[in-house]
Amino acid sequence: MRTRWAVGWRFWAIFSELLLIADCRNRVLFCPHPQPLSHIVGEGSRAFPLANWRLLPCVLAACLLTVVLTACQPNNASPSPAATNPTTPPPADQPPPEPDIPTFRYKIVNTYPHDPQAFTQGLEFHDGDLYEGTGLKGKSSLRRVELRTGRILQIHRLPSEYFGEGITILGDKLYQLTWQNGVCFVYDRRAFRQITQFRYDGEGWGLTNDGKHLIMSDGSEVITFRDPDTFAEVRRITVRAQGKPVKNLNELEYIEGEIWANIWYSDIIARIDPSTGIVKAWVDLEGLPVPNRDIEAVLNGIAYDRQNKRIFVTGKNWSKLFEIELVPPRNAAPTQDDATR
């Protein structure tokens, strides 16, 4: 604003000088007879000559021009924040960062025999026995196994075109997925007699239930909840660990309000919040004493004895099945890369 007034003042000073020059010129050229003092309006040295009233339109025009020029001058003064920074709404609340994910280790409580020919794809504990689904075309089966001895008590073999996958028991029904056939078989739990079957799109990997819905994995980071009577999708969650998707979710078990998931080609189990899909903890089972284990003999099989709160784990073609207890997490964060690749 000071710059505008300075420009206006300089313009007025120059214009005043021009008025004085014009006044003198008028006196010489147009006023051969000097004007008496009585013809001057006002007193003192700053009085305005009456003869110059004919210049009033020029003065008014000059004043108007001064105002216009002043308004057009750039304003170099710093503008107020309110004038240049309109009020903006505060940023939306950001969700708090996820805490570090604890990693549990394990202690072996008991070791049981397991059929090394069983390509384990599903595992369940019910009424004192293990139920197991095995895979591979021509070798897929559904079994009831004695825990203590590993002896097969009951078996149903799938037709050779099917590759058996995850299993779960809900009520008197036993459900068994197939890998790429898009078929879920439903059996009478006691007789292993097929009751019906459902069709679904995509692959079938792991299967468990929360007492109300079937819970299914397909090898991706997505877990689907399904109606046990129709197999229709009810909802789905995306499993994430610290914002990253956790893929290759395989065999599943529902344990004390959490979904436990084997991660294919990994000795890691993810403990998942079923409402959000967020991984709450890892269970690192590296080092389980499995003899003659090759690259395909991956950890794959979790069963839970709800009555006695026992956890069992095994793998594909393992000769042993382990009962484990969890050991409190170490301070170090998990370092597995394949869990979030």
Jot down its keywords.
341 residues, mainly beta, Neuraminidase, 8-stranded mixed sheet, 4-stranded antiparallel sheet, disordered C terminus
Secondary structure blueprint with pairings:
Layout: H1 2-30, E1 40-41, E2 48-49, H2 56-72, H3 81-84, E3 103-113, E4 120-126, E5 129-134, E6 141-146, E7 152-157, E8 164-170, E9 173-178, E10 183-188, E11 194-199, E12 207-209, E13 214-217, E14 222-226, E15 233-238, E16 240-241, E17 244-245, E18 249-255, E19 258-263, E20 268-272, E21 279-284, E22 299-305, E23 310-315, E24 320-327
Parallel strand pairs: 3-21
Antiparallel strand pairs: 1-2, 3-24, 4-5, 5-6, 6-7, 8-9, 9-10, 10-11, 12-13, 13-14, 14-15, 16-17, 18-19, 19-20, 20-21, 22-23, 23-24
Tell me what you see in this structure.
- The chain is 15% helix and 39% strand.
- With 341 residues, the chain is mostly beta strands.
- It folds into two domains: 2-76, no CATH class; 103-327, TolB, C-terminal domain (Neuraminidase).
- Strands 18-19-20-21-3-24-23-22 form an eight-stranded mixed sheet, with no helix packed on it. A four-stranded antiparallel sheet has the order 4-5-6-7, with no helix packed on it.
- The longest helix has 29 residues, at 2-30.
- The protein is globular.
